[in-house]
Amino acid sequence: MQDTQSDRWLSFALRAGLVALFFWMVKGLLVPVLLGGLVALLVSPLQRRLAPRLGRFRKSAPAISTVGVIILVCIPLAVIIIEASASISRFFSRDWSSTIERVQGLLNDGRITGLLNRAGLSGDDVRNYVSNLFQRVGSSIAGFAGGMVAAVPQTIVDAFLFTVALYYLLRDGGLLLRWLLTQSPFRHEETDVLFASIQDTVHGAVLGLLATSAVQGILTTIALFVFKVPGAFLFGLLATLLSLVPMLGTTPVTLGAAVYLFIVGRVGGGIGMCVAAALIGLSDNVIRPWVQSSHGGMHPLIALLSIFGGLELFGAAGIFIGPVVAAIVLWAVNTRGT
């Protein structure tokens, strides 16, 4: 009897070790696969509606759905990121000598000098600060561009893994779900609640992303019109699209507009645009958790923490993975309580 018990523990330890070894081996590749699974969860209802209409080609539904996601979502998003990065690099790599001379001329103005003297500053201090600021910005942009180039191979690998995971999970997701149900150590009802919670959380994350994008785009467009920035509507549309990109958002548009206003001498408008940029950025921390909590039944504070924690741990994909992890933890606590 004792030998049998020891064999069971040895078998369990061996199996657990093999599973841990596998996940440790692929840990650097899990984020695009998880993201592909979350997108498959969203697209699967549409695929189920599409398959019967394809007739004898219904087996092609996963491939068509995958291509549709790439065409409608991934390619435009990649173009937006590339164009935004190129625009930022071009903006900061231009010749700023005339701008610096204009700022220096502004600092020589008697009224500005008087204000600086009252604040305990001198014109030389501000000139040195502005010069150092441009140097730091240039160095940061150069480092950003170098990092973008270095990240291209990994981005290609991640995109490939995301596409493959999306296709196979759309094709075999039903089989995987049934296998998980049979292997789950929890009661069937509890497992159903878990999967329903994950699905609601993913839907909430997507709705939160779209709602945040719409609100930030509208606010940015209004601010650009108020401060009379040229091309306000087009830049507002660009801000709406950029707000779909986690950790980038509307900042390139709003801060770019503020810099433009300062350069043309509209200091009041530049300050107002900076304030608007801060408020628009903070709206993300209010709208997204509120939509997430209202759709998935999660407290707004937990939703906010899960979003920030997910972004810190998983990068841009954490905006979806973080709330899912929080939903699983809440499910575990609630089922433990019952």
Automatic annotation (TrEMBL):
<feature type="transmembrane region" description="Helical">
    <location>
        <begin position="12"/>
        <end position="43"/>
    </location>
</feature>
<keyword id="KW-0472">Membrane</keyword>
<dbReference type="GO" id="GO:0016020">
    <property type="term" value="C:membrane"/>
</dbReference>
<feature type="transmembrane region" description="Helical">
    <location>
        <begin position="257"/>
        <end position="280"/>
    </location>
</feature>
<comment type="similarity">
    <text>Belongs to the autoinducer-2 exporter (AI-2E) (TC 2.A.86) family.</text>
</comment>
<keyword id="KW-0812">Transmembrane</keyword>
<feature type="transmembrane region" description="Helical">
    <location>
        <begin position="63"/>
        <end position="84"/>
    </location>
</feature>
<feature type="transmembrane region" description="Helical">
    <location>
        <begin position="205"/>
        <end position="226"/>
    </location>
</feature>
<protein>
    <recommendedName>
        <fullName>AI-2E family transporter</fullName>
    </recommendedName>
</protein>
<feature type="transmembrane region" description="Helical">
    <location>
        <begin position="141"/>
        <end position="170"/>
    </location>
</feature>
<dbReference type="InterPro" id="IPR002549">
    <property type="entry name" value="AI-2E-like"/>
</dbReference>
<dbReference type="Pfam" id="PF01594">
    <property type="entry name" value="AI-2E_transport"/>
</dbReference>
<feature type="transmembrane region" description="Helical">
    <location>
        <begin position="301"/>
        <end position="333"/>
    </location>
</feature>
<feature type="transmembrane region" description="Helical">
    <location>
        <begin position="233"/>
        <end position="251"/>
    </location>
</feature>
<keyword id="KW-1133">Transmembrane helix</keyword>
